[in-house]
Amino acid sequence: MNAFDYFFEKSHGLDKDFLIGKNTLSYRELYSSSLSLAAWIQKDIGTGKHVLIMAPNSAFFIIAYLAVLKSGNIVIPIDPSMETENALYIISQINPALAFIDLPANREIKKDNLKLIGPDNIPEAKSTNLQQPDVFEQTAEILFTSGSTGKPKGVMLSHKNLVANTSSIIEYLELTENDRMLEVLPFFYCYGLSLLHTHLRVGGSMVLNNSFIFLGNIIKQLKEYSCTGFAGVPSHFQILLRKTKSFRETDFPALRYVTQAGGGLSTVFIDEFRESFPKVSFNVMYGQTEATARLAWLPPEMYDKKKGSIGKAIPGVSLKLVSPDGQEVSEGETGEILAGGDNIMQGYYKDEKATDEVLKGGWLYTGDLATRDKDG
Hints:
The protein is built from eleven helices and 20 strands.
């Protein structure tokens, strides 16, 4: 079992497009292209190796990402706009056997003996026969996130982690094949990847936008492509609500929900959004890369009574609050949030000390403080 097979279990033969918009990509094309590339990767480098992806959101990224998962190798997506020094640091840490690169013309990443593949030279295998090792408990990807020391930390996530968190998110957001997401979050970020995973699994579709700065185009795409969902970090909602009047004044008849994570968004903005779009569900969420993506959510119908809350644990996740000495705190008292579940990371890559500091007794110590009310 692997995450690729889980994502495509019900959707691989769908007669519809997964990517909508300027560049389209059907489910059948995505599935066959990913399988072919996976077979080539496995033949070229084997299994269990590190494969780097450094590219913006695109069909190229998605095909490469899924192919690496299917091939039994470990995918490492990093920011294509990352400073060269930091990119080379990560590359030196993971020592990739292969790299999928799509950078601006004025940038390049070089490393001796590292095979680079771009959008114009994607290889294809003559046969799509692959070894099918059971990799469910093994590392599927490494996501690098900034640590307190400034050096990026590599969060190791297994196929099991990806499947668990994807299943949970689909359940509480009630996603279906009719959902279409306007994707403005990068795929090298766990929040952006979670959108890719969930929509693949349910047979939904996506519209990619790598230029959020052009707000008129965001508004146009939401409306023109009948997007049912939008996901953003606090700055996305602040900009949409305050930098242009046309967003609040536009009717989006297909939009049924939005999600917000990646930090706390002031209730002033949430109230403003809900007032402008009373028929759109606003889902406040909380998570960490170390938890694959998501840990908690605030059901929209509870928002008015629970303003400022991160909500409650999502399906399959347990949360508790503890004091500095590790004892659970009482209702209304402040404690550190601990999380447990099949979505919790395997650890930090090549950093046992940092891993031992946050993974203790089967719990993830998030470093965040909270209080719990009488309703949990």
